[in-house]
Specification:
single chain, 217 residues, mainly alpha, Serine Threonine Protein Phosphatase 5, Tetratricopeptide repeat, 2 domains, three-stranded antiparallel β-sheet, 9 helices, 6% strand, elongated
């Protein structure tokens, strides 16, 4: 229940939404009374942390400084990073990414939380790739190669990841490895293009001059 309210911190969540998001179709007997009991216990636990839960005409709201909830602090830091210059952006992205400690809502499994978890994972990947772009512009090609290698393994059909990985390899003096990675991806996905796989990246020449491996940023 705390997870549901925390995701919607400082926004009212209707009683019916709370019941559905917490219990889905397996509602307890006298669900509204059970809900009130849980919320009373949560108030006692959260009050020493400066977090409140208030009843509103159409639901409940968790009142907290957005920076107290990791999710909202992450989003605020990412927004600031995307508006900052590269040096400051790297620091802000790092502060945002360190807030991720494993999978969100571990041990909680409802359809609503599963959908939120999937959306948050997309947000994390997008922020991570934005940070990689900044790191590449700052010349940190060698430093980010381990991170990009792991991303390339997990996101092997993501063209943005592939382009970043090959650009980092090229700028780190590993052009042969970049070309080999391109050929591996092309061999894997080009035959299945008509089956819905993403368009392959444009083949580079041996000087690595075409997009996406040029040294222009």
């Amino acid at each position: 229940m705390f997870a549901v309210l925390a995701v919607e911190a400082n926004r009212v969540v209707a009683v019916e939404q709370l019941l559905e998001r917490v219990w889905t179709e397996d509602l307890p007997h006298r669900g509204r009374q059970v809900l009130r009991n849980y919320l009373s216990r949560l108030r006692l636990l959260l009050s020493p942390e400066g977090i409140g839960i208030e009843r509103r005409p159409n639901g409940y709201v968790l009142l907290a400084d957005p920076d107290v909830v990791d999710l909202h602090r992450f989003r605020r830091l990412v927004i600031r990073a995307r508006r900052a210059d590269d040096v400051q952006a790297l620091s802000l992205f790092d502060q945002a990414m360190v807030l991720w400690q494993g999978e969100p809502f571990t041990g909680l499994d409802t359809p609503w939380l599963a959908a939120v978890r999937t959306g948050l994972e997309r947000e994390r990947i997008a922020a991570q790739l934005d940070r990689v772009d900044v790191a590449l512009r700052c010349g940190q090609h060698t430093e980010i190669l381990p991170e990009l290698f792991a991303l390339a393994e997990l996101e092997d059909v993501n063209e943005r990841v592939a382009a970043q990985f090959m650009l980092a390899l090229h700028r780190a003096g590993r052009t042969t490895d970049a070309l080999a990675h391109y050929r591996q991806l092309h061999a894997r996905y080009a035959p299945a293009r008509t089956g819905g796989c993403p368009e392959p990246l444009s083949a580079p020449d041996q000087n690595m001059t075409p997009h996406p491996w040029s040294d222009q940023t």
